[in-house]
Amino acid sequence: MTRLSVNINKIATLRNSRGGNNPDLIQVATDCELFGAQGITVHPRPDERHIRYQDVFDLKQIVTTEFNIEGNCQEQKFIDLVLANKPGQVTLVPDILGQITSNHGWDTIANREYLTGMISVFKQAGIRVSIFVDPIAEMVEGAAKTGTDRIELYTEAYATHYHQDRDQAIAPYIAAAELAHELGLGINAGHDLDLNNLKFFADNIPALDEVSIGHALISDALYFGLENTIHMYLRQLG
Ligand SMILES: CC(=O)[C@@H](O)[C@H](O)COP(=O)(O)O
Ligand SMILES: NCC(=O)COP(=O)(O)O
């Protein structure tokens, strides 16, 4: 069954907006796991707009499911943060400074040598590595040559086009996942997955190991409550 990793970036956004500790990020992470989340994901960014580097150290002490740290390994501070905390998984995302959110996967062909070197650093530390890629065959093939354990399919395009034509929206992701599986890569997915589009995605993507979901899930929790919302998302994953 596909595992649900809850991204708690937006809890930190709310907390930071008033400068205090409400909502308490550590308590929310603990409760997410209590409510059934099978992983906790954070995406510390250099401007610390939401997840702060200290949050990662604090979360490492209490996360009992799988801890997934996402971010840009082109920042030395990110590399040091991950190696100091040794999460179960690191997800390498090619963000550039000032992006409102992540909006593209790696060019795994142009960055093959760089990614191969970075991936070996984290794997030697005993950390599973996933790299953020678009559902493009050449990028998946390039990912397989870097030594990464998994890819994370960037699902914004699927979410954007889901309502117009869901079969057309998911087609490149099915093809990319089939290729990744043939190449021996694990398959994660994330970005803009929500209660409307998640079940169709999970039902149709072969060998999907994990989805990481944050923005929509936390937004839904404002209406349905966090415990109920996590259960609703888990039900979509069957
Ligand atoms: C890589 C990915 O798709 C998510 O981690 C996303 O980047 C969330 O980041 P924000 O919460 O800052 O939008
Ligand atoms: N890797 C995707 C993630 O962690 C959360 O993305 P989103 O659900 O906040 O768009």
- Pick out the low-confidence regions: none
Helical content (DSSP H or I, runs of 4+) = 40-55%
The largest pleated sheet is described as: 8 strands, parallel, barrel
Succession of helices and strands? EHHEHEHEHEHEHHEHEHH
The CATH topology corresponds to TIM Barrel
What's the overall geometry? globular
> What is the CA-based Rg, rounded?
17 Å
Number of domains: 1
The helix count comes to 11
Strand order of the largest sheet: 1-2-3-4-5-6-7-8
The overall strand count is 8
Bound molecules: 1-deoxy-D-xylulose-5-phosphate, ligand LD2JLWAY
Specify the structural class. alpha/beta
CATH superfamily membership: Aldolase class I
| Spatial gap, N to C terminus | 7 Å
β-strand percent reads 15-25%
Q: Please state the second-level CATH architecture.
A: Alpha-Beta Barrel
- CATH class descriptor name: Alpha Beta
GO molecular function, one term: pyridoxine 5'-phosphate synthase activity
Site (Transition state stabilizer): 152
Subcellular location: Cytoplasm
Active site: 43 (proton acceptor), 70 (proton acceptor), 191 (proton donor)
